[in-house]
Amino acid sequence: MATVILLTVTGLGLGALYFLIASGLSLIFGLMDVLNFAHGALLAVGAYATWWAASGHLPGAGSGGFGFVLAVAFGTAVGTAAAALLELALIRPLYARPREQVLATVGVGLAVPALLSAIWGADARPFPTPKALSGTFGLLGARIPVNRLVLAAAALVVLVALKAFLRRTRYGLIVRAGVEDRAMVTALGIDVRKAFTLVFALGGAAAALGGALGGVYFGSVDPGQGTSLLIFAFVVVVMGGMGSLTGAALASVAVGLVQQFANYYTTAGLGDLSVVVLLAALLLLRPSGLTGRLA
């Protein structure tokens, strides 16, 4: 029983990490019709910026208490700025050219890990995790890592915040209207481009936060971490329904649990294969994904 509880909570933590990455992908594709293959690079930028700040290079930041919160905020801010810059410099000129857009984001997704390797080396760096997040607590006989709950809480906050942005804010309504009829919204004197940049920045912020907390989850950061996690993020987006935040959340939970249980009860490596089988089965039964809509 204790093993099942541990695997369940750990799977939920892994699913929360996948959602933090997939939520930005889902938001950007659902609202802007952009497949951003550089999303993993934004995660890596956020992870390394947090690691750099938490290692004592940023005044006030550190590996414990408020200093770590400041380091995470710094890493998220750097990832947000990188996403906004990516949209302004690379994505915006290519909105009408989807093939070039894909090639450009793939190039950035390959270039950023190479740049990080050139600066800090290709080897994984130990992540300065706070003591409060390194411990465990008891739950029905199982010892549960505290950081799994932190990841789940962060994912829930991001889900609620993104939904509130889309449904309750002026810019969220502008973006939704711009997706339906961009020419009409522009004719009303509204600059849809600013709203699209904001959406891209929000997606980058979620990815950077995932990178920061991913360092806590794995205990280290490396240049290729974003690329490997991006694969599962795309699986989550497809399973949930392209552009659906609710679907991405449900798919993240399913993928995290299946992967954890399969890795434990079968031979190593079958967890990834189980996720692929789950994806294939879902697409055969429900090609549009779990929800198949923006929600």
Automatic annotation (TrEMBL):
Transmembrane regions listed in the UniProt entry: 6-27, 34-54, 66-90, 102-122, 149-166, 195-218, 230-257, 264-285
Stored InterPro entries: ABC_transp_permease (IPR001851), BCAA_transport_permease (IPR052157)
Molecular function, one GO term: transmembrane transporter activity
Domain of life: Bacteria
Keywords, sorted A to Z: Amino-acid transport, Cell membrane, Membrane, Transmembrane, Transmembrane helix, Transport
GO CC term, one of those recorded: plasma membrane
UniProt similarity note: Belongs to the binding-protein-dependent transport system permease family. LivHM subfamily.
Membrane-topology descriptor: Multi-pass membrane protein
Localization of this protein: Cell membrane
Keyword check for Membrane: yes
Keyword Metal-binding appears in the UniProt entry: no
Protein name as annotated: Amino acid/amide ABC transporter membrane protein 1, HAAT family
Organism, scientific name: Actinacidiphila yanglinensis
GO BP field: amino acid transport
Signal peptide range: none
